């Protein structure tokens, strides 16, 4: 029996003996043809030769080509495993004539190989020809001697002229011609009829060879014209002919698959499954490992688009079939080695890449395992609820979108159950998601401009030039001129400014006319028009004027350095890591280049060093950068890289650089003239973007020097702190780490010894009701140490019960350990007894809250998650106080049962949390008015300062872009405008420049990060970050993770980052700001009624303090907050129809971080991961009577919370405080006016002291603990 490897070898050798050149298989990924998803035929690599665009040193060729049919037009995926001859990966053997031999030799070669070399009986062979191809018919009949009954003429059997199984066409026009096919007859015992008959789909006659005669050129009218040099293209499937030569009916029975099926069965069995011999599942697994390995070796990695998604579909289909066979752990990756053993000799590239491919397969398998079972449960539930035989499209989409189930995987499962898919419903759900994503991505207002005409780009040759102003836009509308300070968009007839595209950012610079100067802060493109975005620095500019356009030359030079370095980086990565590296995205600006590429693991230090060395070697070589315009075909011949899916014009721009054309790419960006201008390239970071996609960042030139200088300074500073030099720093750090570990171990030992009382002499055991009882207080111990100490003391001293209490800052712990011999004692009962507080006669409280306003607040918040709190700025009295959702307090009266307790605790909506005093949230942009006060009071800026507010900002010398919520930015702004429009970049820059240590004292004046002192227990402090706070908060992390990073101030400046405050703190700060810095502590209690003494105490709180800030600054910031509700402000909608003056600020608080370059898409996130909506407000402006803070959890943009504050304020000021609904007069005679005893003095209820902590204080009195232990006993 001839094995598959022998068949392949004999085929190639036969045609080599006939003058053919053996040509290696091209990759399954056709890198030189971006229009083709995968190689699916042997002729793919010769396409340009057949079209006359390419010439080879041979006119005859033979190949064994790797092919994939699992995507696009040629997709066999759904049939694999269920038929005898469908595969995702297969080998196509072929012989080709490029204007050399034609029909006679092609037919005779085929017959000789089949009957003489492969020794197939001639009587077993049948051939077909195109009905009108008499020449081919005569060759078969008269020269080869095939009987007429075994030659079948096939006409136009597909409904149109030349639409035939035996007529091949490359496209609607171009080369075409008839073909002849050779079939093997398995005999009458097998069902089926000859080709062209009604029974042709049976298995009796199997096509094994197709020979195409490229004889004609078809024009647009459909007419055929003979080609001057006709050619031959043939294809024989290796798996099919192997089945014939090995006398089996299924391709899965040939030697190659027999071994793979056995390996698949063993892998499934080792993974806990039960493989079934001959099952479709094993066939799917064996087939799909071939496609997986050959796609990966040619650079494809699992992903969510394009070729990567096809690979993911193939892999996940195989993994699901393994799961179906019962496997419960990864198995698919174990098949890489058996596949390499079978095919490595013919394709040595898979031998070299075996380890890399195995790792990549294992990672994808582990990733899918995390969602596979959950997805199958969702599907089973949907199937159980189905009526009919069609799985709803919504279910199919949910499985795809949430659980990573490719549609054909779900179709596979449906087929097994005799079901179908609602593909129309799926397509509708997919279209809806695309629309949501598209809408979420529309940040650029320039897309809406009504542009006319095009802009000629001169920026490749010039950095300045004269141009005419064709159009001007302000706020999205066309205008004729812009005055000083105004922002807008200018369109020129020609420009040297590069518009952002191809990963390169837009240029900045100036446009100067005789009447004014326009500062260009960004350049974008809308179609063929360049949009110069910025503001008028002086004078005015008008349509029709001539402007002198000049870019920022130094910035352009830095961008050019980084863009050219990007090309070197791409080539260096491919040379270092392999040709699977493909560009997935880039960002090039003046400070760095950020490059995303396909690769499945982090680069090692050695690989990074090699990439840097290759780049800098080319830079030192100082070769010129050559830029040429040429046809796309010429560019491909030159070796320029083309990206799959990219659309290129007929003429492309080719950028070549480096020794021996080190890098050749199609590119429209700006570049250096010689590589030496780059100066130096340094990799500064790498990371993961998504599965199979890595990101690397490189700095060049002056940015690289700045990075190295900074790194050197850090190294020197670190060495000095550790009293060593840079060379010995690593060993010094290692020694200190060992010393630290030893000391931590010693500390834990000493803590245990101290907790146990040293030698035990100082420990007093008492006998209470016959039980040996020990009660101690040991502060500062963690739970583990407390538990260990209690158990050791119990065993060492023979105590029946040990009670240990421990205080640690605001928290307290209580441990009870009962000896196993003391069966009558129960630790839980002892804890409950200690917590018991004897009842005492209390006082009647009258609250500052207005029940009518409280009811209105409850109504407004109904059905929403979040909190609303209102305070009277003049007194600190809490007017309304709502936390949603809440819980039924009646559950706790007689002790809550475990089921209800578990339900309340595990509810993701957290009903047990009092959100007003305990909910901690980043404040978002509601933080900006308080930042504004800090900026003014510190003297960092004045009320008249104007600062750039662009669409993005980065820390000087760094690469990360901090983007504004408005992509085009706000031009330039003073502080008032920055608050009104909520500019992020304005505050980024100023906050970073001031730093946390300078700005924090001003913010602390508003009680951020401190308890407000409200007369309720358990109020949280929140977090106003500082270097000291971070050091303590992350004390268990390595030093570099605990150390404050100056960049952390950037998100803090806009209320993100480490910031975390309660709604009460935000309302309190708002009330303080509204009241010009007069601080009152918030309080609920208005009067105390002592029934024993028959005395009423009127609470008349005094101001705590007055902030030492200028009144003019309070006035300025409050006026800016009033503009937030006016046209142009972020809450302008609630300002419409307002019958009193009001100030406010919107805020949007991120719950999860969005990767740089990605857009926030609420629809794509789980509800609990969407942004929170904030709004703070006060009214009226003159003498505020109400200050409000509202947060809607996962409510989206801050303006969504604003109507709630407006509604509450309207109700309070327009209904309760005016008309016929005045406050009821109160007789205050014989009442004592005092400061709130709940807020000060001996009567203070400390927020950290609830009933539990009061119980802990009984530990100070051992008698109390001893009594509790005895009382808890039955």
């Amino acid at each position: 029996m001839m094995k598959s490897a022998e068949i392949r070898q004999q085929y190639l050798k036969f045609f080599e003996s006939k003058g053919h050149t053996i040509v290696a298989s091209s990759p399954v990924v056709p890198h030189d043809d971006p229009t083709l998803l995968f190689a699916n035929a042997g002729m793919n690599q010769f396409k340009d030769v057949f079209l006359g665009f390419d010439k080879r040193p041979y006119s005859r060729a033979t190949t064994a080509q790797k092919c994939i049919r699992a995507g696009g037009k040629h997709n066999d995926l759904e049939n694999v495993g269920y038929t005898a001859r469908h595969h995702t990966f297969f080998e196509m053997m072929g012989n080709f004539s490029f204007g050399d031999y034609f029909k006679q030799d092609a037919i005779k070669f085929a017959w000789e190989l089949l009957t003489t070399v492969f020794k197939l009986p001639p009587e077993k062979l049948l051939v077909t020809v195109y009905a009108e191809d008499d020449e081919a018919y005569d060759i078969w009949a008269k020269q080869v001697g095939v009987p007429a009954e075994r030659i079948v003429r096939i006409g136009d059997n597909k409904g149109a002229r030349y639409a035939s199984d035996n007529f091949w066409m490359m496209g609607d026009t171009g080369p075409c011609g008839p073909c002849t096919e050779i079939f093997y007859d398995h005999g009458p015992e097998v069902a089926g009829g000859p080709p062209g008959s009604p029974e042709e789909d049976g298995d009796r006659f199997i096509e094994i060879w197709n020979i195409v005669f490229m004889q004609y050129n078809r024009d647009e009218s459909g007419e055929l014209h003979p080609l001057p040099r006709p050619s031959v293209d043939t294809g024989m499937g290796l798996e099919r002919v192997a089945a014939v030569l090995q006398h089996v009916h299924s391709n899965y029975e040939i030697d190659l698959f027999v071994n793979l099926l056995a390996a698949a069965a063993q892998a499934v069995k080792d993974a806990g499954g039960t493989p079934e011999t001959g099952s479709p599942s094993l066939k799917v697994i064996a087939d799909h490992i071939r496609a997986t390995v050959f796609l990966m070796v040619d650079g494809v990695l699992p992903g969510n688009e394009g070729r990567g998604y096809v690979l993911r579909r193939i892999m996940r289909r195989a993994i699901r079939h393994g799961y179906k066979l019962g496997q419960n752990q990864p198995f698919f990756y174990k098949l890489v080695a058996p596949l390499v053993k079978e095919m490595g000799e013919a394709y040595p590239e898979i031998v070299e890449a075996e380890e890399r491919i195995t790792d990549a397969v294992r990672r994808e398998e582990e990733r899918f395992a995390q969602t596979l079972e959950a997805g199958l449960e969702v599907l089973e539930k949907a199937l159980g609820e189905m009526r009919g035989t069609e799985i709803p499209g919504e279910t199919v989409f949910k499985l795809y979108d949430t659980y990573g189930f490719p549609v054909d995987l779900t179709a596979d499962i449906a087929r097994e159950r005799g079901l179908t898919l609602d593909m129309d419903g799926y397509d509708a759900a997919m279209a809806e998601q695309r629309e949501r994503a598209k809408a979420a991505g529309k940040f650029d207002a320039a897309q809406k401009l009504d542009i006319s005409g095009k802009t000629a780009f001169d920026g490749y040759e010039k950095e300045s030039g004269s141009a005419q102003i064709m159009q001007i836009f302000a706020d999205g509308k066309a205008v004729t001129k812009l005055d000083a300070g105004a922002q807008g968009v200018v369109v020129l007839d020609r420009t040297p400014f590069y518009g952002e595209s191809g990963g390169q950012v837009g240029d900045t610079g100036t446009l100067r006319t005789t009447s004014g100067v326009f500062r260009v802060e960004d350049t974008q493109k809308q179609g063929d028009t360049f949009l110069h975005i910025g503001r008028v620095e002086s004078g005015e500019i008008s349509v029709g004027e001539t402007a002198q356009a000049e870019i920022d030359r130094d910035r352009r030079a830095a961008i050019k350095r980084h863009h050219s370095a990007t090309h070197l980086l791409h080539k260096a990565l491919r040379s270092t890591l392999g040709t699977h590296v493909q560009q997935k995205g880039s960002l090039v600006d003046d400070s760095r280049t950020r490059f995303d590429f396909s690769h499945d693991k982090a680069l090692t230090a050695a690989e990074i060093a090699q990439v840097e060395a290759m780049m800098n070697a080319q830079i030192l070589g100082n070769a010129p950068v050559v830029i040429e315009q040429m046809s796309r075909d010429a560019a491909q011949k030159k070796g320029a890289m083309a990206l799959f899916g990219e659309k290129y014009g007929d003429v492309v721009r080719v950028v070549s650089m480096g020794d021996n054309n080190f890098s050749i790419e199609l590119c429209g960006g700006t570049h250096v003239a010689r590589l030496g201008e780059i100066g130096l390239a340094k990799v500064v970071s790498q990371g993961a973007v998504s599965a199979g996609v890595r990101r690397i960042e490189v700095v060049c030139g002056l940015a690289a020097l700045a990075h190295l200088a900074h790194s050197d300074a850090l190294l020197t500073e670190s060495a000095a702190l550790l009293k060593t030099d840079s060379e010995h720093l690593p060993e010094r750090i290692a020694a200190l780490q060992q010393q630290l570990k030893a000391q931590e171990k010693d500390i834990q030992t000493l803590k245990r010894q101290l907790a146990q009382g040293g030698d035990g002499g100082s420990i007093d055991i008492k006998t209470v009701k016959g039980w040996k009882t020990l009660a101690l207080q040991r502060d500062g111990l963690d739970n583990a140490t407390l538990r260990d100490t209690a158990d050791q003391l119990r065993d060492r001293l023979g105590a029946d019960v040990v009670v240990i209490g421990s205080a640690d800052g605001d928290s307290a712990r209580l441990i009870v350990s009962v000896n196993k011999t003391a069966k009558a004692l129960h630790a839980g009962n002892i804890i409950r007894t200690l917590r018991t507080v004897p009842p005492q006669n209390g006082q009647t409280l009258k609250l500052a809250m207005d029940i009518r306003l409280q009811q209105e607040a409850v109504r407004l918040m109904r059905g929403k998650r979040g909190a609303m709190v209102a305070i009277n700025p003049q007194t600190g009295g809490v007017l309304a106080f709502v936390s949603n959702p809440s819980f039924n307090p009646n559950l706790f009266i007689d002790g809550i049962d475990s089921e209800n307790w578990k339900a309340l605790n595990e509810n993701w909506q957290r009903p047990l949390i009092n959100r007003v005093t305990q909910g901690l949230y980043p404040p978002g942009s509601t933080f900006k008015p308080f930042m504004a006060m800090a900026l003014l009071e510190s003297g960092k800026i004045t009320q008249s300062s104007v600062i750039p507010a662009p669409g993005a900002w980065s820390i000087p010398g760094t690469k990360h872009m901090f983007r504004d919520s408005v992509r085009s930015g706000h031009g330039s702004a003073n502080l008032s405008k920055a608050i009104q429009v909520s500019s992020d970049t304005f505050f980024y820059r100023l906050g970073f420049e001031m730093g946390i240590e300078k700005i924090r004292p001003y913010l602390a004046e508003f009680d951020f990060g401190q308890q407000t002192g409200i007369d309720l227990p358990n109020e949280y402090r929140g977090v106003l970050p500082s270097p000291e706070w971070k050091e303590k908060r992350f004390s268990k992390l390595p030093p570099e993770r605990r150390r404050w990073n100056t960049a952390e101030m950037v998100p803090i400046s806009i209320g993100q980052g480490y910031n975390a405050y309660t709604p009460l703190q935000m309302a309190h700060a708002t009330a303080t700001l509204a009241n010009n810095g007069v601080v009152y502590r918030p309080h609920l209690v208005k009067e105390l009624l002592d029934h024993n003494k028959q005395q009423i105490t009127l609470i008349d709180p005094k101001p705590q303090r007055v902030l030492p800030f200028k009144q003019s600054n309070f006035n300025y910031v409050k006026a800016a907050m009033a503009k937030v509700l006016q046209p142009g402000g972020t809450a302008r909608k609630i300002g419409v129809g307002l019958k009193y003056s009001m100030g406010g600020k919107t805020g949007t608080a991120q719950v999860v971080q969005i990767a740089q370059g990605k857009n926030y898409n609420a629809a794509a996130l789980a509800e609990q991961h969407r942004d929170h909506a904030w709004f703070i407000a006060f009214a009226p402006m003159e003498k505020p009577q109400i200050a409000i803070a509202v947060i809607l959890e996962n409510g989206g943009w801050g303006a969504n919370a604003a109507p709630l504050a407006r509604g509450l304020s309207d109700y309070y000021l327009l209904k309760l405080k005016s008309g016929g609904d005045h406050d009821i007069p109160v007789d205050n005679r014989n009442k004592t006016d005092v400061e709130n005893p709940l807020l000060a003095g001996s009567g203070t209820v400390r927020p950290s002291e609830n009933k539990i902590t009061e119980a802990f204080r009984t530990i100070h009195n051992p008698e109390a603990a001893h009594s509790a232990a005895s009382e808890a006993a039955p």
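Residues 20 and 60 are 5 Å apart (CA to CA). The radius of gyration is 39 Å.
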